[in-house]
Structure formats: C-alpha cells, structure tokens
Amino acid sequence: MKLLQSIVLGAVLAGAIAPAFAQEQFVALPSYRVGPYASGGSGFYGGIIDYFSLVNAAGGINGVKVAWQECETEYNPSRGVECYERLKTQRGGATLVEPLSTSIAYGILDRIPQDKIPMTMLGYGRSDAANGKVFPYVFPLISSYWSQAAAMVKYLADKNGGSLKGKKIVHLYHDSAFGKEPLPVLEALAKQQGFELVKIPVAPPGSEQQAQWLQIRQARPDHVILWGWGVMNSVAIKTAQRNGFPREKILGVWWAGSEEDTVPSGDAAKGYTAMSFNTPGNYPVMDEIRAKLYKTGKGNLSDQARIGSVYHMRGVTAGILFVEAMRTAQEKFGKGKPVTGEQLRWGLEHLNIDAARQKAIGAANMFPTVKTSCEDHEGSGAVKVQQWDGKKWVAITPNWIVGDRALVKKLIDESSNRYAAEKNIKPACMP
Amino acid sequence: MFYREAGQFRTTYEADGQILPIRQDRIALLATLAVAAVAVPFMASPYMLSAILIPFLIFALAALGLNILTGYAGQLSLGTAAFMAVGAFASWNFVARVPGMPMLLAFVLGGLCAALVGIAFGLPSLRIRGFYLAASTLATQFFVIWCLTKISWLTGGSASGVITAQRIEIMGYAFDTPQRKYVLVLLVVALMALLAKNLVRSNVGRSWMAVRDMDVAAEVIGIRLMRTKLLAFAVSSFYCGVAGALYAFAYLGTVEPEAYSLDLSFRILFMIIIGGVGSILGSFLGAAFIVLLPVFLNIAAHGLALPTSVASNLELMVFGALIIFFLIVEPHGLARLWQIGKEKLRLWPFPH
Prior knowledge:
The structure holds 2 protein chains of 2 kinds. Chain A has helices spanning 2-17, 38-57, 77-87, 102-108, 111-115, 145-159, 177-180, 183-193, 210-219, 231-242, 259-262, 284-294, 310-333, 341-349, 355-361, 405-423; strands at 24-29, 65-70, 119-120, 138-139, 168-174, 196-202, 223-227, 250-252, 273-276, 352-353, 370-371, 384-388, 393-395. Chain A is an alpha/beta fold.
C-alpha cells in the first residue's frame, strides 16, 4: 500500500510540477535495453541521450533544454504501442518519437499524423516513407533500406570493374519484414544490370545457418549480401568461416556492421565488410562527450569501452539530427521557446546539415550531408562501406556512395502512391 | 454483513440454474458492466483506453479461448498465437478481397477459419495427450507463421509482409477513436464471455470436463471423444481467432506474422495459469495481471528514478518472482483466491 501511495503521490506531484517543464523540448524514446536486441538498443539510445545531455550542459538550444523519457519496449510491438501511448502525453506532449524497430514503427504509423508527432526512422523501416507528400510525419533520415540496397549494388559493380553482368549475388536475409524490405530494389537492379540474384532466407533469430551456407557454397556466388540483425550476424560470419567461404566476399547491411557482431566472431570476422551511414573514427564531439559527460559521471553508457562504438555513434548522429531539426524549427517559429510537434515536423522537413554545419558541431564527415525537403524525407541516401580489421572498423570507401537514385525514387513513388490510394490520402506537401 | 444470502430463496429451476445465484453478485456484475460500458469511455484517458484496457480485453478473450481448451477440455496447447494470427490474416483478407464485406462478419469468418485450422491441428489430440500434445500444437505455431511469411498471397503481396489493417467501419460508422474501439471490443468480449460461460455450464461443457478429468471413463459413459475434443479445439480456436483479429484491427493497427510469436502463446498460457485454469473469471484476472503488472512496475521504477536498464531488468525479476509465488501459494490462480474470499465473506463475521 505504501508503494501505491507513494506512486499516486508521485504522479500527483509530477502533475503539479508539469507547468515548470514548459521551457523543455520533450522527446519520447521507446527504447529497449533488455532482450535479444539489447546491444543495439542500449548503444543507440545511449548515444541519443549523451548528445542531448551535452547540448543541455551547454545551455540547450537557444536556452531551451531537451527533455526525454524512456520506456522499455523489449522490441515487442505490443509493448511499443503501449509505450508510445504513455509517452505521448507526458510533460505537455511529446514532439518527436524514435522507436528503432520496424514493427513498432508500423504499429504507430497511423497514429502519429493524428497526434501530430513526427517520427524518425534512422536507417530502417518503410523506405517509401521518404515521400513526404504521403507520409508527412515520417522521416527515414539519412538513408533508407532501398537507398542502401542500391548503393550496395553500385559498390559491388565498382569493385567488379563497373559491371555485374553475369555475376551471381546471394541475398542471405533475416526472414522478416526487415529482411524482405530491399527485395524490390535488388530484383529491379538484377534485371537492369544482368546479374543473378539468389534469395536465401534465414528463420529468425538466425542462430542456425548450416544448411544456408552449404547452399551458398554450392551456388558459388561472387558476393553474399548479409541482411542480418542481432545474433544472426555473428553466426553467419562464423558459419562462413567453417564452410571456407571468404569473408571479403560478404557485404553486411548496416545492422550487421557493429562491434557486437564482429567481436564475438573473433578472427573469423577479420576482413568482413559492412555498410554504414557513419564514418568510423574519432570526432571532436565524441571527445567532448568523453570529457564533459563520462569524466563527471553523467554519461549514459555503463560500459565506457562502448563510447564511440558503431551503435553509440549512430545514436549521437540521431541526437545531432534531432537537435538540428529543433534549431531549424526555432529559427522559423521563434527562438528561445520550445516548438510543437507540428513545428518540429517543419524543422525535420527543412534540415540542411552541410559540411560547414557538421564542422561547427564537431562531427565533420561523420555522416553525409543531410538536406531534406517535402519530396525527400531521407535527405541523403549516401552510405559508406567499412571493414573490420580485427580490432576496429575502418572506412574503405573515402567518399560517400550513392546508388541508382532515379530507380529508388521511382519505386518510392509507386509504393507510396499505392499506400495513399489504400488509405484515401491525397498526396500533398504540408505548409 | 452485506454479502449474505439470507432471505434469498430460489423456488424455480430457472432461478436455481442462473449464472450468478447470489443477488449481490448479480448487482455487482451489472454495475461493473454498466461502468465499463458507459462511464469508462468518457472518464478514461485515451492512453488508458488504447494502451491498457483494449489490450486487456483482447488478451482476456484469447485467454478465454485457451481456457476452454486447456482449462475445461484438458488439452494442452502452445499454439494460441498461431490461431490468433489465422484469425487476423483471414479477417484482413476477407475485407481486402471481398468488396462490401461487413467488418463484424469478417471477424466471424476469421474466427471460423481459425476454427478450421484448430480442428486440423487438433487431430493429433485423439492419439496423444499432455506434454506430447503440447509439443504437437507447437507445430501449429511454427507452421502457421511459416505459411504467412512464405505465401505472399496471404499478405496481399506486400513486399515486407507487414500490412496495415483496414479501418473498422460498421454500417457506415467508423470506429477510429480509442473510445469507439474500446466500446466495440468491450461488446464483442462481453458477448463472447457470456456465451462461453453458458457453454461450459451446458451439456457440451460437462462432456469437456469429463474428458479432462478422465477420458477413458468419459468414453465408457458414452461421450464421443473425437467429437468432444475436436469441438473444444474448434471453439477455442474460434475465440482465439476473433481475439487475433481484434488485436490486429483494434489495437496494433497492423497485421504482421511477428506480432503472433511463440512468446505471445506463452504469455496467454501464463495468463490462464495465474488467473485460474478452468475458470471464465480467471481468464480476465490473468489477462489483467499480465497486461497491467509490467506497466505498473515500469511506472513505479520511473517514479523511483531508477536507470532504465536497471528498471527493465527489475521488471523481469519481479515478474518472474510473482509468477513463482502465485504458483506455490495458490496453484489454482487468482480466480480461486477470489472464490475463497467470497466464501469467507459469506460467513463473516462468524467464521467457523
């Protein structure tokens, strides 16, 4: 009873204090730090929170502090929807949400335009949401799966002297929405460029792949695209080694390109390549996070060795994009006061983080130039390829790679217009 | 004092055979229903409705389905989520492919499809029972999810396999706000719970219980085992199918195979174990326990300002400990605790 009383009391107090939070920009973080995907979730959300803390320590955005609240989803769509519903009304209302899960994002996709809360999907989710006329509140920022697939094919073609004609590529994928997402792009490109695409699914979570790698060995492909997530990645790398398949021929998706995937595989991972929308390395902003947060015990990650790891840096990137969107929105709607969800949506649609701005933040060349518009909620579509040298990730493409944008754009328009027709949405840009 | 049946005489068979023989219970139930149907939609916040009450009712319906099969007919099953998936995908397909398909009819047809699948996968129950049957129903779980990811026709040819549920519209009236969705779910669940309660009190229910308690004896006294067991599978799967359709249309808003994982089957099994095996009320109590406790613990941990990673692990630990505690202290679940409480109340203030 005591516990119940204190909770009720706490809730009442929180309600009473609520107006005092008025100078805060509230962000909902339906995160996951337990369960099979915890390594990704804790690093990513840790990164976002670290960057928010850094901005707040420097006085906020024109004096407006960023506020956030986490809610554990365990990567479960049902819990995710509950978390979203709980967080959206806290502290005067959430103005941004990032679930880092395709299923949760799909679950709240229909709710966000009604609630007027923009949702970002940093490097995952519905690729066709890049069309802001149909999905005004959804932002697959930096790069979607389709752009990544197109860039992968471009990179492989360049590696083979410009053409993939007559080559054979295996798409080894997590048999879920996530793994099937790139198929339209890969199929279209296979037809266009004349390579053979062999699709081999792995049942989730992917801890058993003996049969698949035997099949791959028989097929003798020139390249294997590893579209994996979580435990599937290290199992794939290890099974490839056991079957004598060269790691250099495997190209992982960006959710198969973190320390958590390669370190458990040991030597087997050396030489393995994967995509990324971050350039691995150190940056002034990361040094600042180390000095200002972790030295004073205010950092979010409990394991300090993970500072600057792939997932952590991806979280910091997300934090930078969010804060820049808030800044952009404030420039239009009034500096020094928090913006609403609708106004932040405008900010996300008018992002322009060029090289100069990145340098000012202390993140020069950490991620590609992001310039969004109503037609292009992605803002970039550029990616890099990184390689595991046995100890750390190293970028092996000095420049950002962009795949066949015209083809991706065509697919985005087809798919999003079909969605609009199904849902009776009249595609239009919001003011 | 208030809860005594002194002066309540039952003089007809009808009066003797009603669902709640004590007047106070009848009043309490009607009052609860009235509050749930009239007051709650206006009083409760959208969060309460769409994130707590709707999933609670839907899970209660699924638990009811499993309770019919496991609690009343004694057939262990681990395929609950698969039957829910069949209901959800079948309903989606009926609405998408048949022009002018009424939504409620689609739910019923979805339930019927689940019932057919239930009968097919109930066939092994004629030869095997107990844990062996549980293992064979596990096949349902894997087979159905495999089908849904493999056969793209079932998911409308969608590239990712995730499809958006259609808007619920019944006779031109759109159920698109949390209030309206809640009322719809409440109506369906209340109706089906009443039906289940009467079903288990009838001839069919008694033959289920006879089969559960000792199937050889049941066969000797003339109960047709095959029909009884398969009927239990059919009815149970029908309930689960409708629950699955509601889960997709009224709660998640998407239809995707991953939402109906083995994990969900286990959660529903825990619901009936904690709530009470072989009890209609138990299905509701168990669903409330499993839906509310994690949310409650999560909010409590947040109130105590614990770091999120600690909070979520704490949640798992408390949850596990409570399940063990309940299994040791009251193996018959919350419904039995409620029953004991009622018996004590009837004797109060003079226990003997």
